[in-house]
Amino acid sequence: MGAAIVIATVVMGIYVYTALYRHPRTDDAYVRANYIGIAPHIGGPIVELPIVDNQRVRAGDLLFVVDPRPYQSVLDRARAELELTNLEIKGYEQAIAAAEAKLGQRDADAAYAHQYLKRVEPLLDGQFVTQNQVFEARTRAQGTRALVDEARSEVRRARDLLGQLGDVNARRQAAEAAVYDAQLNVDYCSVRAPFDAYVTNLNIAVGQYANRGQDVFALIDDREWYVMANFRESFLDSIEAGMEVDVYLISYPNRRFRGRVQGVGWALFQHNGATVGVLPAVEPTLNWVRLAQRFPVRIVLEERDPERPFRMGQTAVVTVRGHR
After folding, report:
1. Least confident of 8-12, 38-42, 186-190, 231-235
2. What residues contact 297, with CB distance under 8 A and at least 6 apart?
3. What is the pLDDT of residues 243-276, one digit of tens each?
4. I need a labelling partner for 295 at 20 to 30 A (CA). Which of 134, 250, 319, 320 fits?
5. Are 251 and 46 in contact (CB under 8 A)?
6. Which are the contacts of 174, defined by CB distance < 8 A and separation ≥ 6?
7. What gap in Å lies between CA 6 and CA 305, rounded to an integer?
């Protein structure tokens, strides 16, 4: 009888060790999903709201529309200014052509005056021309050179006004950027789902003013669901990334879901040792009992059941089965 009790105890100990340490199990686990707050890039009253709370939406589905009229007005004005800029650029190009033609004429006049001066200066010694004539020719040559410099300055000024930098016209680029920015704001008026998701916490109606950058409601990402299971630190040696996991949900007790360990948390926040002001706050220990910490283990759910959808916050019971 005593031997049977010893054998039963040993068998039970082996079973308990296998169950607890080779296949760790916990019921401190919950279904999770990533979620984002939906906030408009621009502000204004909501004029369309084709969704309802808890609705499933596909990527690209329209969620709501902010009144686009003031932003459309800005876009129309920016497009008109772009057209005017193109006309101005044509005007500057014509001004450059005229300035260059004028420069060419002034260059020709200066060349003629310079040649004339060279012809009359030698005639002064033979008194074929008067000093007055030579002085006038020299003055005319100097004046034409000044006119050439003035014409060159007008060409540079016309080119600067054109705003051409290599292959890029700065004036046109600035106007096109204004159109692009205005078009973005018009596009931002229609807010669409970035991925497949569930609408949650929708407590607004048409007419609600949506502020720029402030969440209107939330979307639960339906692309990936996972379980956050809290295991005692004494089990962490038996848990590795990639291990298979059996997951049971209290909502669907007779359905097993398969999962995979994605990773084990690296840090926990501890009140003991936290800093208060400039001093560490250490709580007094009144006994010798040391409770094992619980670390979060992220388990990705690898199968879905359309008849048993996952919901964020469902209670789960998980058992780590090990590597395949």
Report:
1. 8-12
2. 228, 229, 230, 231, 239, 261, 263, 264, 265
3. 999 999 999 998 999 999 999 999 887 776 677 6
4. 250
5. no
6. 85
7. 46
